[in-house]
Design goal:
The complex is a heterodimer of chains A (380) and B (248). Chain A has 380 residues and is of the alpha+beta class. Chain A contains 12 helices and 10 strands. Chain A has 3 domains: 115 residues, Acyl-CoA dehydrogenase/oxidase, N-terminal domain (Butyryl-Coa Dehydrogenase, subunit A, domain 1), CATH 1.10.540; 107 residues, Butyryl-CoA Dehydrogenase, subunit A, domain 2 (Beta Barrel); 145 residues, Up-down Bundle (Butyryl-CoA Dehydrogenase, subunit A, domain 3). Helices cover 50% and strands 16% of the residues of chain A. In chain A, strand 4 and strand 5 form a beta hairpin. The radius of gyration of chain A is 21 Å and the shape is globular. By secondary structure, chain B is α/β, with parallel strands linked by helices. Chain B folds into 2 domains: 198 residues, 3-Layer(aba) Sandwich (Rossmann fold), CATH 3.40.50.620; 27 residues, no CATH class. In chain B, helix 2 packs across helix 5 and helix 3 packs across helix 4. The chains are: A alpha+beta (380), B alpha/beta (248). At the A-B interface, helix 1 of A face helix 5 of B.
Amino acid sequence: MGHFIFNDTHDTLRAEIRRYVERELAPHANEWEEAEYFPDSVFWEMGRLGYLGLRYPEEYGGSGLDYYSAIVLAEEMTRAQSGGVGMAVAVHAEMATPPILKFGTEEQKRRYLVPAVKGKKIAALAITEPGAGSDVSGIRTRAVQDGGDWVINGSKIYITNGVRADFYLVVTRTGDDQWGGLTLFLVEKETPGFTVGRKLKKVGMHASDTAELFFENVRVPDANRVGDVGQGFYNIMWELQGERLIGAATAVAGAERALEMAMKYAGEREAFGRPIGRFQVIRHKLAQMATEIEAARALVYTCAWRWQNGEYPVKEISMAKLFASEMACRVADEALQIHGGAGYMLEYPVQRVWRDSRLLRIGAGTDEIMREVIAKQMGF
Amino acid sequence: MEILVLLKQTFDTEAKITVKDGHVVDDDVTLVINPYDEYAVEEALKLREAQGGAVTVVSVGTDRVEEALRRALAMGADEAVLVEAPAGADELTVAHALAEWASAKQWDIVLAGNVSVDSGAGQVALRFAEVLGLPHVAAALKLEVGDGKAVVHRDAEGDTEVLEVTLPTLVTAQQGLNEPRYPSVPGIMKAKRKTIARVTPAAPVAAATVVQSVFQAQQNRRNTMIKGSPAEQAQQLVQLLRGEAKVV
């Protein structure tokens, strides 16, 4: 990729992940999109190869690499030609499990993180509810202490990996304080009272399973509490920074895939006697798309560098997430436009990028929430 | 069991080939382990996993070949050796360079690819075996090793020939022998830390061939439009397939 945050190890890793994704995942993209599922064995295999534990410590089965290795994985997963596959893996490895490493107990790391790194147990993160999503402080799913246990009641919605997951990191309300009243728990799928509702139909990201979750007197031991009581909001805000950064990196790489498709098509498709890419209107579109991708990439890599170096740049990460997501949608839309009628046909892959990209402006905090965060950080 | 794999670095099969001033330009091209040699590496690793021992990979060439050797290490090979030689050495030079280094040690089995996807000569491995006086079997689809011998199912132009050969021997791999593994991240990291031994042939054998010219083959595509009623078209098509294409 030729950027200063990447070294020789990242380059090798990138080449190997790319080879795996292009050979083992991409050929199945259409089949999995149509089935609205992909086999769990992808997790097993990626776990076996070490892709799910790139930056986890070796003592938990990871490879102890840096944060940039997670960026490399997110970028290369876009070559699977199915945003859903990349999202499922990202939720597992970069969203649901980092809080266990950061805030969890040794026992939780052994019981949940180690098998997750191996790909033997699949993880999901349950934040959003019918009445609260980007507004995390509005969460109503309640956990009440009962002796040494907690009893959880409520529901979650739009949960990625919701159908297939073996365990869920769940944000619950344990107190009345808007921000100081949230607590995180690990809930195993087999726990009595826990049920997975419908598998939800989506505009894009078809290969990824999205579910509703119901908690009816779900009893979990205190040993499953992740972090201190009342720290859930702050801990999930920490998690969301990583999630947004990975989301932004995915957006940039996805836009790059769309640009590649547009360039290929513009070079092949002829109109008025020449390839359409020779018309200034198309050339300028391509130039604009490439420029926006580079600008977003620079912002994402700068945030990644700061994150890797121990900073907590909430404002800039929000900017990166906002800008990269909106950019990815613009670029995907232009790529589809360049394809003309073909772009609107399901047989061309560009429509999938266009559909998949749309989620980027919503998931991990909407564009609107990002602007709120940025404005607040600016003191307004 | 001491297992040796002869390995060549080649162009990625999807790389665009450019010829400039009588040479193939490889500056911006991704180079990989020759796919047939990758089967050999995989087979060597499987043999070691089943019977113990060590896998050594060796290649001939310049600094850049280290990438391919390191990938074999990442897949799980124990040791790697680079025999230094200028790029473009011919098959005779390469076979002798490999044999000179390999002769210092006893190998139970030597594995290699059936052919390289670039020059496609298919000579180095067999010449290597001849220089060292080893029996050799080419184009293996299945390999069973035990009791000091190897049973090799080899691809004989579409048929399968089963041969038994005593060790030590050299066997080349045909497509279908196995599915090469992907290196794991820990494997990649371990390979990064390994040292690749370098040797220079003491008595290099001069090339027996001289490349006169290198050019890109022009593909001549020809269209024949078949006209007439469907029945006439079918008849013409069959005639062309039989008479010109000679496929039916």
